[in-house]
Amino acid sequence: VCARALCFPVMPSLQTPTQCLRIVSKPGSNKFPGKIHQVSRRNWHRTSGNTRATSLWALMSITASATNEPTRHQQSECSALVPYVPSPLQGMHARTLVYQFPAMDLTIDLAQRFGEEGIGVGGAAWPAGYVLAEYMSRRPSIPPDADDVFDWTNKRVVELGAGLGLVSIVAALLGADVVATDGVEGVLPVMRENVQKHTAAAKHAVNCTLLSWGEEADETRILADGVDVVLAADVVYGDKVHIWKKLLKTINRLTDPSTMILFAHFSRYPDKERHFFRLLDAGYHRTAIERSQLASGNAKTNIYILRKKSA
Questions:
Q1: Backbone dihedral angles phi then psi of residue 203, each to the nearest 5 degrees
Q2: Phi then psi dihedrals of residue 25, to 5 deg
Q3: What is the mean pLDDT of residues 51-62?
Q4: Is 140 a residue whose pLDDT tops 60?
């Protein structure tokens, strides 16, 4: 981001609180270009011409190169206020990520352990998980043409590939009886840490447990109490067909035509992923939620409602 881009006022007349970023740039020189040294997230209000700000997030220090060509815009500190669009992937190596769900008046600070030994990719927060959790938090009608909002209370919910537990936390706080599963045992301690921190007020305790896709013993154990809803977010990656088939085998065993499946997918390799969806569509009816119903800034993420086809 160049310093020149920061030298314009962005302060709209707002009728409702709007989340924005305040970006401050430091001057540079021929040898050392300017640096963005502060970014803070705030809730800005404008009433009767007076502006006030309430900090929502601690001030973060970052360094990002500005333009390499010195200009008059780099001769003094400058700042800009720009609209804030939350990034679902706030930083894979951050120890803590903060998510806000205004519809539930909820803030979740999620411990993250990406790259640590024995944890793997499940130790990071991935984009589709946030999109699914945010969608659920607004209690929409599911399916969209239903007469009323979906009632999560006492629903028996199983999340596949739950990772850090974000989606399961939101489901539990909506009243569901949740089993959060992952196939990597090393992920379970950080999942439990996050779940225990945020679900003390939940109606049901969340069960964080190991489930290896395609393992009948794990699936049978979870099926003992029945399953109303299956949740899955960012569980398809690359072209690992043998893993996809194990995933589909698990979904098949956990569901019947009455089970609702919410499947959130961030598309990285569309050509390769088409093969997975061909396998999926052979056994399931798939309906996409309109993008306008999803959190902004997530053009590559879709949420699908799946129903198992009758035999």
A1: -65, -35
A2: -110, 140
A3: 33
A4: yes
